[in-house]
Amino acid sequence: QVQLVESGGGLVQPGGSLRLSCAASENLFSIVVMGWYRQAPGNQRESVATISRGGSTNYADSVKGRFTISRDNAKNTMYLQMNSLKPEDTAVYYCSARHFGVDFWGQGTQVTVSS
């Protein structure tokens, strides 16, 4: 069982920045892949960015060049730096981790981009 706790969401104006954090209850070396997903009202949950244990990253086309995913193994924490935020980035953001073939999810954190 892996517990994930997200933080860092909030209200920001278009063009602003936020950094999301995801604290894991397990050592990140045991987690093969972690990722950030988001779900806007009326939409399906979509992948935003993923990072492997080795540090390989993948991004959705809609966030490339604006968002950066990273992980600090010493702190058992994953981050999502979000810059140049747009209203269409508004969603609940979820942290996910795959541990021994099982996907675990956090409770989500709301990000609202609005003037």
Short description:
The chain is an all-beta fold. It has strands at residues 4-7, 10-12, 18-24, 33-39, 46-52, 57-59, 67-72, 77-82, 91-99, 102-105, 109-113.
Please outline the major beta sheet.
7 strands, mixed
Average pLDDT level: 95
Tell me the strand percentage band: over 45%
> Structural class of the secondary structure composition?
mainly beta
Which H/E pattern describes the elements? EEEEEEEEEEE
Quaternary organisation = single chain
Question: How many β-strand runs?
Answer: 11
Measure the end-to-end span.
40 Å
Measured as a percent range, the helix fraction is under 10%
**Molecular shape:** globular
Number of helices: 0
User: For the CA atoms, what is the radius of gyration?
Assistant: 13 Å
- Flag low-confidence runs: none
What does this structure look like?
The termini are far apart. Strands 2, 4, 5, 6, 9, 10 and 11 form a seven-stranded mixed beta sheet that branches. The protein has a four-stranded antiparallel beta sheet with strand order 1-3-8-7, with no helix packed on it. Helix content is 0%, strand content 53%. The chain has strands at 4-7, 10-12, 18-24, 33-39, 46-52, 57-59, 67-72, 77-82, 91-99, 102-105, 109-113. The chain is mainly beta and 115 residues long. The protein has no helices and eleven strands.
